[in-house]
Structures are given as C-alpha cells and as structure tokens.
Amino acid sequence: MANFYFDEIIEVVKIDSQAVYDKVSRINAKSEENGYYLELDVHSELYQMRPKQKYRMLISNTLHMDGSAVTGYFPEGEPKSLAEKFEYVMHGLLYKMAESQEKTDGNDDVKVEVYISFGGLQLMLRGDPLKMRKFKVDQKMFLLLRKI
C-alpha cells in the first residue's frame, strides 16, 4: 500500500498571482480537519485554482498503489498509478524542515514547517509536530491535487 505523508481536503484562502513568476500563482490554503496551513506555487496556465474552492491534496513518496518505488515510467499493462486519479501532479525534493511558533488563544503552539521544491515551485506545509513526523529531509515526494 502507498505511504501517504499528507492526505487532506484543503480550502484555498487566497491566491497571489504576482508572487513569484509569470504563469505561477502562490496559493494560501488550510486543511479542513487537522489544522494544516500551506503555501503552494502552482503553474496557473496548467492548473487553475480558485479562492474558496476545495481540493484533495496528497503527498506521497510513490505513485504506485502498492507502495513500490517509481523507476521512471509506467509501461503498458503495469498496475495503475495514483496520478490517474488526480488532475495536477508534481515531483520534488523535501529540502528543509523547521520549527515555528504560532499564537493561538494566547498560547504559543510549536508547529513544524516542511519545505519541498518542485523544480522551482515551492510548498511550505505547517502542521502539528506529531502529524509531521513521517517527513525527512532529502526525501523525494509527489504532490497530487484534485478539485472536489
């Protein structure tokens, strides 16, 4: 079975189309259930995201349903890929993890931030340390998105 590092429904809070490059939008979003916050760069000509819309976002170390490593391509007759169930897929490298302080109800909550680069498009994912324990620096990751 594939090992999912993140599998949540996210809601887009804000889109900044001038943040990085032409044809790239920076998405600010939050998860519905576990209090994650994320900033994600998306190629806006390939995949349009809108404020207040919901998406399923998945981060995995493989695209194979059985959890086996991706070797390069999917020959005919091979088992189906996770990518077939999603609209937008990126492959990247987790290059940094950091702690951050977040004020909630007057308390300082410690959060973990994960940074993944997808060939220049960036993801910053912030969440509870216990839920982020699977992530490790130098992991190759796949990010998959689908509109709900």
Report on the structure:
- With 148 residues, the chain is mainly beta.
- The chain contains no helices and eight strands.
- The protein has an eight-stranded antiparallel β-barrel with strand order 1-2-3-7-6-5-8-4.
- Strand 2 and strand 3 (37-43) form a beta hairpin.
- It is globular and about 55 Å long.
- It starts with a strand and ends with a strand.
- The mean pLDDT is 89.
List the helices and strands and how they pair.
Elements: E1 4-16, E2 24-31, E3 37-43, E4 54-60, E5 88-104, E6 107-118, E7 121-127, E8 140-147
Antiparallel strand pairs: 1-2, 1-4, 2-3, 3-7, 4-8, 5-6, 5-8, 6-7
Characteristics of this structure?
148 residues, eight-stranded antiparallel β-barrel
- Uncertain segments are none
Structural class: mainly beta
Number of strands: 8
- Content of β-strand: over 45%
In helices, the fraction of residues equals under 10%
Largest sheet: 8 strands, antiparallel, barrel
Mean of residue pLDDT values: 89
Give a brief outline of the structure:
With 148 residues, the protein is mainly beta.
